[in-house]
Amino acid sequence: MELPVDFVCRTRSLLGNEYELFEAALAAEPPVSVRLNTRKGLLKPSSGTSIPWCHTGYYLPERLTFTFDPLFHAGGYYVQEASSMFLEQAVKTYIQKPVKCLDLCAAPGGKSTHLLDLLPEGSLLVSNEVIRTRSFVLSENITKWGVPNMIVTNDDPGKIGQLTHYFDVIVADVPCSGEGMFRKDPASRTEWSIANVELCASRQRRIILDVWEALKPGGFLIYSTCTYNTEENENNIHYFIEELGAEVLPLTVPNAWQISHSLKGEVPVNRFFPHKTKGEGFFLTMLRKKEDETIPIRLKTKTNKERKKEIVPEEFRQWLNEPEKFFFVNRQDAVQAFPLSLKADYILLTEKLAVVSAGVQLGEVKGKDRIPHPALAMSCVLNRASFHQTDLDWEDAIRFLRKEAVSLDAQSPKGFHLITYKDIPLGFVKQIGNRANNLYPTEWRIRSGYTPNEIKTLI
Questions:
Q1: Which residues are CB-contacts of 328 (< 8 A; sequence separation ≥ 6)?
Q2: Which range marks the domain in which residue 103 is found?
Q3: In 3D, which of 392, 398, 394, 374 has the Cα closest to residue 449?
Q4: For residue 109, is it within any domain?
C-alpha cells in the first residue's frame, strides 16, 4: 500500500517502534463486521465471532453479497465498522435514564441505529445530517431499523445550537481527514494532505462551538473521528477543555481489547489502531459540560383553541401495536404516528428544525382507500395481524426488492399483503385479482440488474 510521505513521517513519529506493525496491518485485508437488530429476531450468525465491546456486533469470516440479502434490506442488521461500535461503552457507562440525544453528523446512520438500541426506553433521538441528499439515506436506514422514537433533520449545527440547553447527550462523529479509512478507501489516501488535516481540525472545532449551547449543563458530548493524528483528536480535546470548560471522562475497558490511550497529554481518550484491535482507525472521547444555571427550552403545546382535532381513520390506529401510546398527525392525507410521551418535543422540533422524517409513517388516504406506507412494514410497532401475510423465497424477495412484479398464490385474498422473507417484513403489495401491485419505494429498490453467480447471505 502506497501511503502519503507526509503521513508516514508524522505517524512514525507518533507510534515510534510500533509503526512497522501499523503499516503491515494497513496492508492486510480489513475485517468485515455487522451489528444485529435484535428487535427483528435475528440471532448470532453461525459463522460469526463476537465483537467484545458491542453485544450485538459480530465479525464475519468473509464479505457477503449484502445487496442481495433481503434481511439487509429489511433492517435485520447493519454493516458497520467494528471500531465505531465502541460507542456502546460510552453510552452504557454514563447514560442510565431517558435522555434527549442528538446524533449531529449522522449519515449514513450506523451510530444512530446503534443509539436507538442503546438509549434507555423513553429517550428521544434526533439524527441530523447537514447535506440534503445524505439526509435521505440516513432517513431510509433509520426507518428500516424500525424504532419510532426518532426524528431525522437536515440542519446546520449553528441552527441546532439555538435550542439552548435542550439535549442531554450529543454524539459528534465529526467529518475528518479519514486516515482511519486508508485500508478500506483508496481515495482517502489520495485526498490526504497536512493542509486538509488542519482544515478538518478547524472545522471540527467550529462544529462543536456551534452546537455547544444546545447541550444542557451536566450533559455529555461524545466526540469521535476515524483518524490518527493529534490535531483532530487530542489537540481539539484540549481546546474544548480550555475554551469550553469541558471535563473529560474516563471509560474503563479491559486490557485484552488493546485500546490505546492518549498520544499527547494525559487526558483519558480511546484510540483504535489496526495492528492492535481488529478494526479500522477510530478515536472516541467522552466529555461533560460543566454544571451551570440551565436555561430551559419551553416545550410548546397548542391550547385547546389553537389545537385542531386530527382526523385519522380508525384503520391507521389498528395498524399499530398499543396505539394508545401514540399521537397521530394527518398532513395532506398522509398519516404518521409519534410516541405520545414525546409529543411536546415533536411539536417544538418540527417548528424549529427542518424535519426529514419522524416516528412512523403509517400511510395515506386516497379516496376510500387506506394505503399502508412501506415504513410501517419496517416498524417494530407494526400490528402484523392487521394484514394478510405472504412469505417469499429468496428469488421472489429479490424481485420484490427490485420493485418488479410479484405473483401471489391465485387463492390469496384481495387487499394489502405484508410481504416477508424468513418471516421478517420487507414491505407491502396490493392483491387485485390476477396480479399484485408492488408498493416498495422506488428510491429504496435494488438498482443492479446483475445477479452474482454466488450469493452469500447472513442466514
A1: 310, 312, 316, 317, 335, 336, 337, 362
A2: 5-30+80-288
A3: 398
A4: yes
Residue labelled with grid coordinates 484540549: 238
- Residue labelled with grid coordinates 445487496: 67
CB 85 within 8 A of CB 34: no
Determine the Cα–Cα distance for residues 78 and 95; give it in Å rounded to an integer: 23
Separation of alpha carbons 333 and 63, rounded Å: 43
How far is 326 from 360, CA to CA, in rounded Å? 10
Instruction: Using DSSP, state whether 144 is helix, strand or coil.
Output: helix
96 belongs to a structural domain: yes
**Concatenated DSSP letters of 202-218:** HHHHHHHHHHGGGEEEE
Task: For residue 403, tell me if it sits in a domain.
Answer: no
Number of domains in the chain: 2
| Domain co-membership, 184 together with 321 | no
How far is Cα of residue 370 from the mean position of the Cα atoms in its chain? Answer: 30
What are the cell numbers at 360?
412512523
pTM of the full structure: 0.95
Q: State the Cα–Cα distance between residues 7 and 190, nearest whole angstrom.
A: 11
List the one residue out of 193, 204, 273 whose CA is nearest residue 235: 204
Beta bridge partners of 366: 369
pLDDT of 283 above 60: yes
Radius of gyration for the chain, computed over Cα atoms and rounded to the nearest angstrom: 23
pLDDT tens per residue across span 105-149: 999 999 999 999 999 999 999 999 999 999 999 999 999 999 999
| Cβ(284)–Cβ(233) below 8 Å | no
